[in-house]
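Reading group handout, session on sequence-to-structure problems. Before we discuss, look at one worked example. The prompt was deliberately terse, the way you'd type it at a terminal:

> structure Phosphoribosylpyrophosphate synthetase

The input record follows.
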Amino acid sequence: MNHMTTLTEVMEELRTKGYTHEFGPKKDYLEEKSTETKLKSEDFNVDKFYRFEGTSDPGDEMTLYAITASNGMKGVFVSAQGTYANEVSPELMAKFNITDRAHVNTEGSVQPIGHEETTH
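And the output record:
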């Protein structure tokens, strides 16, 4: 994937790779917005993630997750830092903790414009 700087650019690139669904969190599952398909944490895998940091406020951090469901559905889930902390079960959010997932591709992590690129 080429170096991309915006959430929109990455979402469009992922869409061309088949990640066409959008997921939103509910208490203990993700729900695909157009089909209302419900995915518990054991029903999907995180394939890739991309972090975006606000240029003026580090609190503006967002993460885009590319996920594949066990039924073959591919899509994205966007999480702003702390947004779902009180709305989603710890079990569901643990699925997105990539620090202990060596198999998750972090190569495409997006860095803010003007910052040196670092390895995540």
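Points for discussion. First: The radius of gyration is 14 Å. Second: Residues 25 and 31 are 6 Å apart (CA to CA).
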